[in-house]
Amino acid sequence: MPSKTDYFSSHWPSVVRELSCELLRQVAAGEPLGTTFYPAISGVLADFRPGAIAIVRQRGMDWGLEPAFAAASDFRIDAVPEVVISTALEAQFIGHDSGWVAAAIVSKDRAPSVLVVQLPRSAVDQVDALRPMMIGLAELSAMLLQIASDQAARGAEIQRLTTMLEIAATWQQQRDWTELLESMAEAATQLLDAQRASIFLWDRRRSLLVGRPAMGVEGGQLEVDDSAGIVGAVLGSGVAKRWDASDSESEVNRKPDAQLQFQTTSLVAVPLNNRNGKRMGVFEVINKRDGRFTEHDERVLNELAVHAAAAIENSQEREHLAQNCDKLALAVAENVQVIGESPSIVTLRKTSDRVAKTDLSVLILGENGTGKEVLARSIHLSGARRHEPFIAVNCAAIVETLLESELFGHEKGAFTDAHEARAGKFEIANGGTLFLDEIGDMSLGGQAKLLRALEEKVIVRVGGFTPITTDVRVLAATNQPLAELVRQKRFREDLFFRLNVVTLKLPPLRERGDDILLLAQHFLEDFAHKQGHRVPTLSPAAARALRSHLWPGNIRELRNLIERVSYLCTSDVIQPSDLSFSQSPNEQSDAQRLANKSLNEATRQFQIQHIQSAIQRAGRNMTEAAAMLGLHRSNLYRKMKQLDLETFDE
């Protein structure tokens, strides 16, 4: 079957066929014809000495120049007699006494157009020779205009799709729910050249469609019945719908107009479906600025709705995940807390709660086993960084040669065993909290590198050159007297002050009185839950035994003891015989410590130690300490004076 081009060219004069081949080659090569088309026609008609050449196109009731090709700057459309244009449209071709010849450009998809050429009057007499050339040039013009129109449409489609993808990418990055919906409405009004747009989300439980944004409504959202108006119909049917003033008024819900003091004259609404195809709402655009909404507008809004639904669903999932993370963080924070009601712990907890809301560096002091890491985790989980990583580093366990790699990471090939690049603790903890445990055991060289990273907030991997910005909150802990280490030149003074913005000191367990029993109960419940057993209870004698122990291993020792009892005790009531206290490796037995003392001196030292221990365990409550020692309060004071011990009021 011959193509349209073959049909045209078969009856065109040879010069027109040659021109068409040349121009089509230019089009295929991507060369614009805007400025070369009219000069090319002038060349074909050279024997007739043409002057002005242009294609005129109907625009409403008037005529104007075809914008696809550039006419001469001095061309005046009012110089062309109206009879020339009108007659050309009726008769396809005309040669007029005014010197103008014209041929109609026929196209079903375009407004009426005419190719007009001004010739010397003498040339008009050669109408018979001009007729086939002008008709051929007009048909060639129609073909080229159609090609230009298709190219423009493809370009517009590419631009529309590009814009759509850019909009969708922007939506996926937005986190604020209100801003997301406003951005969707703004994009729809711009793409469809409309006055307003709203996203109606379906509240199934209340049978309502909740529209946002809604200008002029308190709270910025509009609630309508989910079966009312065009949006209700689209929600129910899942089929897009267009409406304008020429359609039935009964289809439109005018209540929102009255509420918003707005007049809807046209609208297009499409369904919003989630990724499973279930209806989640309606996307509505109101009042086309020029005319009515078209099928193309509906198609554009449908495509926009697909991206909008995905962004809304993702935003809802992120919000749900954030809520779950908050709940999880709160649950974890409840399990990671400093347990106790002794005055020192209550004060410590209040201070740590205030510090947690800040980004201040914290130095945690305390003996081994007092719960320094638990306190650090509690501070992290109570602060704004609770959803970010908490990375603990035991500085005492890292040899100096690997310290820099451990903290700052290394690149592949940085040293013998660096077979691949690895991020350091600073990078892993970025955005969260870095807990430096046993900071007092870090070498001076390591301290210098750590200080630089803390001050500059920039690290460089071992074997690398690229600076890496980090944002971490630093919590440090030690069981050593850092101030004394600074005086001994074993700890850098500048690092000490950098870490020591806020100091929290955990008291040893032996000074926490009834906190021992609270912690014991906590561990009993924890281990019973893990085993699926009933929680055993402490007999009064076992409770007294726990209170009287000095706990050299602090909470860690207590936890280990309770774990052992939980697994080995067969009774529901724990007796003193079930408790087997461990002796500290550094602790001498009473017999060893007093072996070389006289009986009187050994007795005196034992009484002093025993009374001091009771006072510490009782939290300096002298009445309670006396009861623990089996003495009356006044007798305890008298005994302390005999032993030259300092007495004090409660």
UniProtKB/TrEMBL annotation:
Keyword Metal-binding tagged: no
Any one GO MF annotation of this record: ATP binding
Organism: Rosistilla ulvae
Domain Sigma-54 factor interaction per the UniProt entry, residue ranges: 338-567
Protein name per its UniProtKB record: Nitrogen fixation protein VnfA
Keywords: ATP-binding, DNA-binding, Nucleotide-binding, Transcription, Transcription regulation
InterPro entries named in the record: AAA+_ATPase (IPR003593), AAA_lid_NorR (IPR058031), GAF (IPR003018), GAF-like_dom_sf (IPR029016), Homeodomain-like_sf (IPR009057), HTH_Fis (IPR002197), P-loop_NTPase (IPR027417), Sigma_54_int (IPR002078)
Lineage of the species this protein comes from: Bacteria, Pseudomonadati, Planctomycetota, Planctomycetia, Pirellulales
The keyword Transcription regulation appears for this protein: yes
GO biological process, one term: regulation of DNA-templated transcription
Organism domain of life: Bacteria
PANTHER family found in the cross-reference section: C4-DICARBOXYLATE TRANSPORT TRANSCRIPTIONAL REGULATORY PROTEIN DCTD, TRANSCRIPTIONAL REGULATORY PROTEIN
SMART domains, alphabetized: AAA, GAF
